[in-house]
Design goal:
The structure holds 2 protein chains of 2 kinds. By secondary structure, chain A is mainly beta. Chain A contains no helices and 11 strands. Chain A is globular. Classes of the chains: A mainly beta, B mainly beta.
Chain lengths: 110, 118
């Protein structure tokens, strides 16, 4: 079983749509969780950290379910500029490397 | 601005030659840096953990004699792809943590290096 699994998509949605991405991780000892965004041929950039209590940043909402080892990202009112690959990322403890999912590709069209 | 700088951003080399990629932390001293590789439409895969002043820790399946890592200072780690072959063509990217940040969870990435071996 892969350490971090995501549906690769692609998700093709119109502007203004709401889209949700899911991710599961295998290491129950994982302590930190993130969503990164990666544009084509660029380095990944941190979108948001994910906390057990859930957190929201504008149109983006992330949630973590430790019992199910499941992470989600919800994007509301999609913009053309949201088109990218979204990477689910998990860390086991501070100071260690992050483990990346394969990414979910989102394409927002007008 | 960037806090981790990677160079070169793109490099084309002939098969059999060696290529060195540099990763520098600009605003902090990084005792640990991480090297990833990403093939097209694939995830970032951790290759090795670079430790300042000691040997790198390689992930399973990564040849340490082929991918030489040197972390001689607190701000610089280098990855040398030796005797490169076309199958080594990939996106190589480094990352580092700022140890002074209390959470210890913020990872900074370099801009990445596109290697093409012809």
């Amino acid at each position: 079983r892969k350490e971090v699994e995501q549906d690769p998509g692609p998700f093709n949605v119109p502007e203004g749509a709401t889209v949700a991405f899911n991710c599961t991780y295998s290491n129950s000892a994982s302590q930190s969780f993130f969503w990164y965004r990666q544009d084509c041929r660029k380095e990944p950039k941190l979108l948001m950290s994910v906390y057990s209590s859930g957190n929201e940043d504008g149109r983006f909402t992330a949630q973590l379910n430790r019992a199910s080892q499941y992470i989600s990202l919800l994007i509301r009112d999609s913009k053309l500029s949201d088109s990218a690959t979204y990477l689910c990322v998990v860390g086991s403890q501070a100071g260690t490397a992050l483990i990346f999912g394969k990414g979910t590709t989102l394409s927002v069209s007008s | 601005g960037a806090v981790v700088s990677q160079h070169p951003s793109r490099v084309i080399c002939k098969s059999g030659t060696s290529v060195k990629i540099e990763c520098r932390s600009l605003d902090f001293q990084a005792t640990t840096m991480f090297w990833y590789r990403q093939f097209p439409k694939q995830s970032l895969m951790l290759m090795a953990t670079s430790n300042e002043g000691s040997k790198a820790t390689y992930e399973q399946g990564v040849e340490k004699d082929k991918f030489l890592i040197n972390h001689a200072s607190l701000t610089l780690s280098t990855l040398t792809v030796t005797s490169a072959h076309p199958e080594d063509s990939s996106f190589y990217i480094c990352s580092a943590r700022d140890p002074t940040e209390s959470s210890g969870n913020t990872i900074y990435f370099g801009e990445g290096s596109w290697l093409t071996v012809v």
